[in-house]
Amino acid sequence: MKNATEISPVLELKELRKSFGDNHVLNGFSLQLFEGENLVVMGKSGSGKSVMIKCLVGLMQADSGSIKIKGQDITVLGQTELDVLRTEIGFLFQGSALYDSMTVRENLEFPLRRHKEKLKMKETTEALVMEALENVGLAHAIDLMPAELSGGMQRRIALARALILKPKIILYDEPTTGLDPITAKEIIQLMRSIQKKYGTSSLIITHDVDCARVISNRIILLVDGINYAQGTYQELSQSDDPHVKAFFKH
């Protein structure tokens, strides 16, 4: 693998700032995500993790700074260009966010209907839905409603939906929150197997230290609105810095 300094990041946030009145949430936060990498961003509640994600997916406008996806600054793109770029990104929302009134099949067909141009001639909607469900081991649940699924199954279906357009980048927002420890482990293993199968680059927002330990190639600690420290789990967990140590107390 090339040295990180020789290759362009697939995703880059530079000097991102966002304030709400006197509350300065992001104070020049920067990160780079490289191809095939699992990058974890950890921060305490209220540290700005969700604000950063919202800026990244366009639900919120940063006050300043740049957000580049595959070299394109999304803060200056028009709506049409943005929509095309968004098909390169899968997003697993905190709490799954399935449409309650739709079956599993309809939930997965939804992004395909919005982005028909991504379908290759040979690929049918049915085939893509089945492939996505098989990836998460839930082909048998295709005609069930979300209310008929356990929390872990809902998270898997949401992951299948995030994968259906075969994105290059997947954003995970607290993927294990609200799950029991066994189901959380299953979701983490699933994330790993998907990363291996498709070579995706993953940005994982979590405060689950166990998830970070198992999944990460690299971890960034978001403290006081900045990229306070970064390194492997091994490196950070052995740090003497009190701000860093606070993350790894069990």
Name the descriptors:
about 250 residues, alpha/beta, six-stranded mixed beta sheet, four-stranded antiparallel beta sheet, 9 helices, about 35% helix, disordered N terminus, P-loop_NTPase, ATP binding
What's the layout of helices and strands?
Blueprint: E1 11-20, E2 23-33, E3 38-42, H1 49-57, E4 64-69, E5 72-73, H2 79-86, E6 89-92, H3 104-114, H4 125-135, H5 151-163, E7 169-173, H6 181-198, E8 201-206, H7 209-215, E9 218-223, E10 226-231, H8 233-237, H9 242-245
Parallel strand pairs: 3-8, 3-9, 6-7, 7-8
Antiparallel strand pairs: 1-2, 1-4, 4-5, 9-10
Domain ABC transporter: 11-249
InterPro entries: AAA+_ATPase, ABC_transporter-like_ATP-bd, ABC_transporter-like_CS, P-loop_NTPase
Pfam families: ABC_tran
Structural summary, described in words:
The protein is built from 9 helices and 10 strands. It is α/β, with parallel strands linked by helices. It has a domain of 68 residues. The strands form 2 sheets. Strands 6-7-8-3-9-10 form a 6-stranded mixed β-sheet, sandwiched between helices. Helix 3 runs parallel beside helix 5. It is globular, with a radius of gyration of 18 Å. This is ABC transporter ATP-binding protein.
